[in-house]
Amino acid sequence: MTYQEHLESITRIGREYRYCKSIESLFELDQWTMLPPLGGDYRQQTAAWVAQQKNHLYLTEEAAREEAYFDGVSLAEIEDPVERGIIRTFLSRRRIAARTPEDLQRQYNLLKARCMQKWKEAREAKDYKIFMPWLKQAFDLKGQIAQAINPDAPAFDTLVSLTDEGAAVGEISAQFEVLQKGLRALLAKLAGGTAPAAVDYPQGDPAAMSAFAQSLARELGFSTDLGSFNDRVVHGFTSFMGPRDARVSTYRNGSHELIFTCLHEAGHAMYSTGSSQRLIDAGLWGGIEGGFHEAISRFYENMVGRSRAYWDYCFPKLAKAIPAFAALDPEQFYLGLHRVRPTLKRIASDEVTYSLHAILRFELERDYFAGALCAEDMADAWDQKYREYLGVEVPDDTQGVLQDMHWAGDYIGYFQSYALGNIYDGQILAALERDLPDWQQDLRRGNFVPLNDWMREQIWQWGCCFTAGELIRRVTGSRLDARPFLTYLDRKYSPIYGLKPGLPAEG
Ligand SMILES: [Zn+2]
Asked: Which residues surround ligand 1, an ion (CB under 5 A)?
């Protein structure tokens, strides 16, 4: 077989893998929208079968043969990035499929259901001790599976790379340290300024607010030829159905916060449908999963959606579409979006404190897998970090270590992605300002074409051809670097707090 024939073989496997993933996305969306309660059992069997087919694609003799062949190929010598992406992706999926021990995985799957139940019980009782032994088992089994997938790397590095491919725990830790210290210094600085007054935001008609938020997403560049909105789901998420098909799910709500949810999901949708035809043919469409996808969605939510330029353009439209907002002063509306207040929960947090929630969770996981923290001490360590990083006291375990389902629901080695997204955003913004210094003026005029063209050219068209680390270096010329994000926050928030921009010295 020639190199070309081998390449075609793994490209076909990769495409079929994506077909299975699309079916899984459709099932997931259906589960939130149309699946009747009694349809659940049969659906579960069907979904398990699809998952098995997806995994099996990488367990055939053909896949073993291709692994042996491509193990002998030096990726660095392949010039075409798309070919490199096809090979890297194939090898990574093959290794995970072939090396995950079936018995451990089965044990973990059984444990997962129990874990979720125990987490709910513990939440009810506000008592971490009920969940503790289950968390320990889940973490330890996950660690064993990770060790089997890659015996040469620490388990936590492998778990993190399953969410953020190619990300190194050492590099993340170093940048999180910079970010954590910088954010705490910025919080201390802002505490010496004048916080914007709290705004009593009105509530609009939920259906009207949803329609308005969707119209903003379309103006931003979300195309109804490439996706659709369903506003009858309980939380916001986007299903990547196909290379030209993104389904956005949101909810109806009279709060202006719904606008940010829609802009966020529009970011995911535009990114996932923006791959070039070549990347689609290669099975590498849809964007880089993990922190990088979150970076694009948060860019549209925050860097665009919470900017002064955007609200200069948008506020008159809001006041017209939702008359309850017409009584607000536009400046007051904008400033009210930028009150910084440490909270107990990530999902209720502001732009400045958000990353701290993710960083501290990452640190707890890292310390656990390094043997420096045991399950028994997890709740206390959690409370201690909230005190230290955010200055808040955790009143009980339900509002602390038990606050979300991530650890009970197989999201272990996942939290870094939330803070990585912000770090990438700072770097992307700096590169955008280098290439399009007038982009804010365009926003003020409601012209999003230059921004989206830049995003498409630099990022979207490449699908998941590169790892996040590779792409960020291509776009910005530098490695993972937390400083541009800190600079962005300081330049934005200092004037709002009546202070001069300028980062306080680290320390
Ligand atoms: Zn998101």
From this structure: 297
